[in-house]
Structure formats: C-alpha cells, structure tokens
C-alpha cells in the first residue's frame, strides 16, 4: 500500500502525539498506522484542540519502580479503545486459580510494557463459551424495551464477545479450590463438582445461575463458598452484569470484579462490592503508582456517587485501598438491591477511562435490554475514572472477571463493630450480639440463607471495527 506524502504530513499534523508515534515503528506497520490515524482524524476533526490538550495532559512521567507489597491483596478498606480485544485462554486449573490476583505471580507480561497492545490483540471464543455472540439475543428485561432489536443492534458498535447465561452459565469459568488467603476471610472456596454435590451452585427453574454460601449450623475453621474466574480475558470493553440477587448480611463480603496479571500491575476494577448490611455499592480501582482521579468533586467528575476517601488509586500508596466511589442509590447493593429484583451493572473501559452505571430492574435502558448498548445515552455514571489522570491501557490490561463471596476478612471483619455507613445504622456486633465476625460466621450457619448470588447473565462486549 502506498500513501501520498502530503496527505501523510497532513494526517500527522492533525493527530495527538500518541497517534503520530505509531509511524515510528517502521514501514511494516505503516498500513496499520494509516488506518488508525484515519479513524482518529474523523473522530477528532470537530474538537481537535481539546483532544490535543487532553492527549498532552495524559502524558505521564516514566512509571516509578513498582513498590514491593506484602504478599496480601485487599479488595478495598473501610477508609470511613478503543483498544478493545479479548483473549480466550485455557484458563488456570482449580488448583492454581488464585494466581490471577497473587502479587507474587510471574506468569504474565511486564507491568510497564504489556506484551501485546490492545489494538492488535485477536479475539476468539472460549471453548466452553456459554453463548456465542450470534445467539445472544436474550437480554435484561426493561421497561419500555421494544420487542424488535434488529434496528437498534445495527446502530450499536458494541457486539457480544463472550456471554455466560442459562444452563451453560458455569462453562468457561475456573473454580478456585482453596481458602481465602488473599483477604484473610474464613471462606473455603470449593471446586465445581464439590459445589454441585453440596448444592452450592445450580441453574434454577428461572434459568439463572445461583452461587451460595454453606449454611451448615456450625463449622470448625472455614465456611464453604464459591469463587469463579473467567477463562476468557479482555483488554477494554463493556462488561454487563444482570443479577437478581446478591449475598447480604453480617459477615458477608461479596464482589463482582476483574483484575489483570501481577496484581496490582495489571489493575483491578471492583464493579460491585460491599460488606455486611450495606445498601450502597462501592466501585474501586487498585493500580500501580501513577493512576489517580483528577478531582474529588462529583460535579467535576460528572458522577452520581461520592468519593470514599482518596483520589490516589495506587495500592502501594493507599494501604491497598485504592480509589473508591460509593453510589448514592440506596438500592444498589445488598438487601435493598434484592428487594427490587436486582438490576444491571454496566462498566465501560475505553480510551476515555473507566465508568460504571447501575440500573434498577425497572429502569434498564431499552438499548441495553435489547443487546444494542449505547453508553453515550445513559447519563452520568455512578463512578468515573477519567483517562486524563489514569491511562486505562497502561494501568489495566488482560483482565478476567470474577465472582466471589468471602466471609469476614480484612473489610467485613474490620468493620464488624462499626456503624454509620448507609444500611449499617447498627453495627453487626450490636445486631448479632457476637463479639467477633469469625465467631458469628462459624457458629451461625442459618444466618447465611441470603448469602447467595442469582445471576441472569454476564456479557462482555467489544467494539466492532
């Protein structure tokens, strides 16, 4: 392919430095670079000066050497592009599933230089894929959703790359088979066969996937629970969770989240998370040093939630807490979420940064319900982490999605005697009349009948070229 020299000079003069840098990679990448530039020239032609300003604002100093962390990783603490591509891997076996979030794991690319740029990764379905993109017409129910989604589907650039739903929901996930040693909980995660035998997982009569916590009255050291990780990995995308019920109650710490290799180098995105009786969801990022939120003001961030503590997202600089946003919706988590029949969480990871929305069951946008998502039409998200102060493809890459329910541990156990957070007007210590979280969990199995996930689907969308 030949490119006219004056045209090349014009294109280089009208793109951000990160785009022009593509041409320094050699003639063998010229064709790819030209296509990349063409897309960005079209996209930015009406706001060139703002885009150039943003691009320069995103230029960072060379990343600091990674700070040595203790061999423990926390989800969070109680401090109260386009590059869209997926990789279907064979996944890890149940015996080594914990390596995905083990700071000591060395089986993944260097944190400062991912082996493959997001734009060049190829994508293929996992062998155990629950639903192929072509057959994923089933979608969240929504008020006002149209019955014919073909026209809306054609207008959306987002296409399903991986879907988990129905009778084959659990295909394509790795089950962890070991205690929770990362967050010091008293949960024992068990393998798929054991979980089925113990009736801790099932596909119920509604066709939804259920993941339970053991309710045996008294256990000695651990209470059985479930943690699963997708074999499919992705860098960038739109991750949509449709859930009817999530674990709730004193001692519980459930989460739906994702992370990359060599934690925290590959980044962590906590999309749904909370503890005990909380009613408001918390969205949190955990990263290497250098990633932050540009402001603590919700109005400046255009979010509906509020900052929990710090704008610094670096695990090493925040005692592993990262940067968290608490949702303002009092039915976005726990018993209140379950009381409305749940809803949909959607997390967008693209060139602009990372955003998470929550839609109650009665307010799911019709485009999302019809499998033709249009995030630009959804209004302000619950949480937003702009690219201007945290490069979404430097600090996050090669993620796998994870469900788990741990018990007690650093967060749920750490706030056992605390109150004042939405939903926790009375501390769990006062409400249960038990002094420690661990004593309560090990000796009160009947208290965990509500400690289960019921999930309609998880869909990972990627943007079509």
Automatic annotation (TrEMBL):
Residues 90-158 are annotated as: Disordered. Keywords: Glycosidase, Hydrolase, Signal. Pfam families: GH16_XgeA. One of its GO terms (molecular function) is hydrolase activity, hydrolyzing O-glycosyl compounds. One of its GO terms (biological process) is glucan catabolic process. Residues 90-157 have a biased composition (Low complexity). Belongs to the glycosyl hydrolase 16 family. This is Glycoside hydrolase family 16 protein.
